[in-house]
Amino acid sequence: MHKINEKIVLGLKGIRKTYEGPPAVTALSGIDLQINKGDFAAIVGPSGSGKSTLLNIASGLEKPSVGQVLLDGIDLATLSREQLCDLRRQSLSFIFQSFNLFPVLSAVENVEFTLLIRGDNKKAARQKARESLELVGLGDRWKHLPSELSGGQQQRVAVARALALQPSIVFADEPTANLDSKNALSLIDLFVTLNKSHHMTFLISTHDHRVVDRASRKVEIMDGLLMN
């Protein structure tokens, strides 16, 4: 699996997605998109425009009906299911609007969980988890259960979990949707800081104009087509 261009993290070529009916529904109609290392890109468009489908296909959660998805230069269509799962564990992270934390695990245990699944040893996983929590401002909350954290803090744990993997790209689907205004702005500030200071690459599906205003790239989609 050879990297074609280290500056290009994600490449979508001629992506079409049709869901079988009846009636058949075409969600994406020929998408070409390139995300470079260090991009902070926001996918915007009305409900039903294809934002979530685009994000799911870009991250390998769904397969396109037609077209090619390249992640770090690797054609996802050439991978077996096991290889695709391994690539996602090694190179991708996800942040969702629902925090998806395990309620019985502490903050640090939630963060280190994906590292342990990836195969990191316990000591290394704990160290990376602690460092990631420090990075998102929760170094003093690492022993707390999700029920002992605010909504904004829980989302930061989810961010720390994503960052601990040191991914090539972070995908986020409406990450501010379940946060109040103060916590949403704080999360956006955190994303911008991570992007600028740590050169982390983000592809975010959002309705939030505050995310769009801070993004370095705006990817507008309408009726399954890119508008820019």
Question: What does the model show?
Answer:
This protein has 228 residues and is an alpha/beta fold. It contains 7 helices and 10 strands. The chain has helices at residues 51-58, 81-91, 107-118, 122-135, 151-164, 181-198, 209-214; strands at 8-19, 25-36, 40-44, 66-71, 74-75, 92-96, 169-173, 202-205, 217-222, 225-226. The strands form 2 sheets. A 6-stranded mixed beta sheet has the order 6-7-8-3-9-10, sandwiched between helices. It has a 4-stranded antiparallel beta sheet with strand order 2-1-4-5, with helices on one face. Mean pLDDT is 90; it is low at 1-5.
Question: Which keywords apply here?
Answer:
228 residues, alpha/beta, 6-stranded mixed beta sheet, 4-stranded antiparallel beta sheet, 7 helices, 10 strands, disordered N terminus
Give a concise summary.
This protein has helices at 51-58, 81-91, 107-118, 122-135, 151-164, 181-198, 209-214; strands at 8-19, 25-36, 40-44, 66-71, 74-75, 92-96, 169-173, 202-205, 217-222, 225-226. By secondary structure, it is of the alpha/beta class. Strand 7, helix 6 and strand 8 form a beta-alpha-beta unit.
